[in-house]
Backbone:
């Protein structure tokens, strides 16, 4: 990692930390920063009420935003790097659609609670990813085939989700629809902790696995000649990326465009040809914690699901990205 | 042959369902209306539904041929190019922001959305080096679908009534159209069909490549514009009529091509006959498999069509047409 990458990472983490602190002080029960810090330090000066608000209501959500953002950013960076396509991200290639279909099934048909939904989403994402990977295998997996198969699978799963939404009563369906948009509202420790653990465990794993990736970026043929086990390196990395995206989606729903945008922003800031995984993860954390803070406060006291915000901001970025990628001929 | 199968599919669509009706009973109530339940089912439910399937199917099949011919892309179709998602977004916009209701209002929004999304995706996909390759177009379409779909979801979250209307519409069902809607749709479809027929020659010329087509003296711009307009009108009407139905526009042209070869003057009519067969068959299947509930036609086509799309993608050469 060069100095620029370190600087970008540190700056992104500072932004995320600031967003975290701000989001701990703001809300229906505003609190000065000093009180928040007292509570966080475990001091006795804080009232029980502020301790409850900070530790049980706001901290899990704010930390959840950072963890989920990190997971999405890292996952997106890995997928984009392996597939060598800036548009390949878990939300475009269909992993999220699988998580969504299972989650909506659980919400609508079985009236399951958040824990079960999270588990189901995890399983759905994993199964879909495996299916897409196997379907696009044919003497190895090429990037574009992975993306195109993902598009087909997404179309199918989306229509299953639409059907399920139709069979439910309107209130259940709307609840499911909010889940589909992605929201961090009301997340508790039991939902956030798995994401934190996954990030802590999988970040080093990803870095270790990505070490031989430089060779991969030279193209499959050259990598083969250099003796990189292309297929295996790819599969292991993709598996890590899917696990990250799945855990994050299970906790917060399929929040769109973070996995896609974070690596691209990081890459531009770092000005490196390759994708810096750590910087992407940090940028993801910064993006999502800012977005969630905005989702909470823009229309206060009403709240937006954070996924609405990321879509509205992320989509134009995606279009710009695509136009750029086409212009320099790196899409196909 | 194909026409006979179409007739059979039509009959099946009228007769089969939650309550199966005999041929003689159906004919009897039609010739001598007796006000019975069966007559009402046939007149108000089955016949409009079947007509909607015929019209929307034909429109989707023809627009699929047009889109694939225009973009010379085997993966083109209204669902892949983001046209469905565009129409969905503008229809929802129409409902929430402008308060339009009913087909007459929707159809214009559906046109606008289909056109904007279609041209936008094509512009994006053909931008830059190499022109519009299948992969670039499909990616642009996927990106647009993610974008437009996200906005649509966001809009529907604002208002529970819109959400309710949208969720029924979004599966792609033939049941929402009644006779008056179908009557309103007919002129649009007629215009689309004429435009499609006119553009057949131009599309054949385009298939030879731009240079060749120019050498043959075809007005490329005019031909392209006519075909594009026809595709927009047909897709927009079909989406307004039956909601976003996936994979009919994509798969049917391939079937037609397998039957009659690549000449558009044959492809277009064959697609117009084959696509309603597919759509009606999907609709009937959806009624039969999930009794007493129903699977909407759009669900059936998506579940059956996706493997076809994947198979196309897996072919060794992603043929540009």
Residues:
């Amino acid at each position: 990692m060069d100095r620029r990458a370190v600087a970008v990472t540190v700056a992104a983490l500072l932004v995320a930390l600031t967003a975290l602190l701000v989001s701990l002080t703001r809300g229906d029960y505003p609190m000065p920063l000093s009180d928040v810090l007292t509570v966080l330090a475990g001091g006795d000066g804080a009232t029980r009420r502020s301790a409850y608000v900070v530790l049980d209501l706001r901290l899990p959500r704010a930390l959840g935003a950072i963890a989920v953002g990190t997971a999405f950013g890292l996952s997106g960076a890995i997928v984009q790097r392996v597939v060598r396509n800036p548009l390949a991200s878990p939300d475009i290639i269909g992993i999220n659609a699988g998580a969504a279909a299972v989650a909506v099934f659980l919400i609508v048909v079985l009236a399951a609670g958040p824990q079960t939904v999270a588990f189901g989403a995890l399983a759905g994402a994993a199964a879909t990813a495996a299916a897409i990977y196997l379907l696009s295998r044919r003497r190895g997996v090429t990037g574009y085939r992975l993306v195109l198969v993902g598009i087909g699978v997404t179309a199918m799963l989306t229509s299953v989700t639409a059907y399920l939404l139709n069979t439910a009563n309107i209130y259940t369906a709307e609840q499911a629809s909010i889940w589909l948009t992605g929201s961090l509202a009301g997340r508790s420790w039991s939902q956030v902790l798995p994401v934190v653990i996954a990030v802590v465990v999988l970040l080093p794993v990803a870095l270790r696995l990505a070490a031989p990736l430089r060779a991969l970026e030279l193209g499959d043929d050259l990598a083969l000649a250099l003796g990189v086990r292309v297929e295996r390196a790819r599969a292991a990395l993709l598996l890590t990326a899917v696990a990250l995206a799945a855990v994050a989606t299970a906790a917060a729903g399929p929040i769109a465009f973070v996995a896609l945008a974070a690596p691209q922003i990081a890459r531009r800031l770092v000005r490196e040809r390759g994708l810096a995984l750590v910087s992407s993860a940090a940028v993801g954390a910064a993006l999502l914690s800012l977005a969630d803070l905005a989702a909470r406060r823009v229309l206060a006291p009403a709240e937006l699901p954070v996924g609405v915000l990321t879509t509205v901001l992320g989509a134009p970025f995606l279009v710009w990205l695509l136009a750029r990628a086409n212009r320099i001929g790196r899409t196909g | 042959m194909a026409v006979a199968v179409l007739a059979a599919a039509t009959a099946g669509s009228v007769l089969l369902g939650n309550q199966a009706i005999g041929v003689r009973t159906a004919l009897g109530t039609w010739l001598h209306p007796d006000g019975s339940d069966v007559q009402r089912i046939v007149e108000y439910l089955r016949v409009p539904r079947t007509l909607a399937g015929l019209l929307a199917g034909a429109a989707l099949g023809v627009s699929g041929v047009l889109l694939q011919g225009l973009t010379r892309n085997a993966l083109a179709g209204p669902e892949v190019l983001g046209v469905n998602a565009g129409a969905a977004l503008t229809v929802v916009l129409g409902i929430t922001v402008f308060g339009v209701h009913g087909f007459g209002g929707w159809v214009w929004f559906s046109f606008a959305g289909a056109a904007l999304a279609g041209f936008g995706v094509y512009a994006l996909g053909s931008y830059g080096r190499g022109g519009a390759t299948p992969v670039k177009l499909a990616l642009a379409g996927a990106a647009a679908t993610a974008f437009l779909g996200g906005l649509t979801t966001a809009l529907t979250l604002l208002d529970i009534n819109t959400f309710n209307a949208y969720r029924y519409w979004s599966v792609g069902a033939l049941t929402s159209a009644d006779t008056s809607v179908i009557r309103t749709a007919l002129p649009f479809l007629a215009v689309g069909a004429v435009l499609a027929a006119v553009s057949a020659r131009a599309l054949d010329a385009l298939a030879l490549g731009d240079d060749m087509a120019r050498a043959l003296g075809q007005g490329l711009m005019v031909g392209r514009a006519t075909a594009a307009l026809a595709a927009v009108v047909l897709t927009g009407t079909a989406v307004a009529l039956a909601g976003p139905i996936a994979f009919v526009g994509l798969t049917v042209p391939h079937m037609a091509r397998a039957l009659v070869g690549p000449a558009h003057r044959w492809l277009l009519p064959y697609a117009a006959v084959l696509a309603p067969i597919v759509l009606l068959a999907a609709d009937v299947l959806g009624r039969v498999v999930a009794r007493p509930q129903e699977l909407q036609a759009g669900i059936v086509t998506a579940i059956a069509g996706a493997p076809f799309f994947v198979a196309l993608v897996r072919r060794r050469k992603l043929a540009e047409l």
